[in-house]
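Question (not urgent): is this output format expected?
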Amino acid sequence: MKKVILNNVSKKIGNDEVLKNISAEFESGKIYGIFGRNGSGKTMLFRAICGLIKITEGDICFDNIRLHQDVSYAPNVGVIIETPAFWKQFSGFENLKMLANIQRKITDVEIEESLRRVGLDPNDKRPVKKYSLGMKQRLAIAQGIMEKPDLIVFDEPTNALDEEAVNLLRQILIEEKERGATVLIASHNKDDIRLLSDVFMKMESGRLSEVMTYE
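Got this back:
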């Protein structure tokens, strides 16, 4: 896809308007960073873009494909939203293999490569229940990129990552945008977003505002 387009997107839960009249365009080959306090609407916005919730008003389109009319979910997307869940009794590779079997788009070699890219050993037989929090986050990033998605949506991707892993994530996101992916990342940490993104945005009280681009 070349663009993700939001037109006047709003979402109400009861009497609470959690997304308020958001319009934006996200182009391929760029990393968009959205920062805001917890509860500002970042995660809800990402859920809406992925099709995990239905919006109350407005439209979300992927090029000319309209979400919830032409498709039920965002096409060809890699996602991390909130705490990643894995089968704890299986290894990292086995987890990704089971996920890859849903669409059968990639081979074992590509799964192994995605693990190496995030700094995990594809031959590590330890079950995920023995992984540290940082290793689990690296595994989540691997599942988000392994099928070479057109759209990458990562909510708080630096959670539990040390400095080395954050630098590795930055390199991965640069490689993904150079491949032509549209990359959306969100964090409550402004410095993380500045480090990782090309286009800088602010989420506050359900509104997407203060858009700044910088070199």
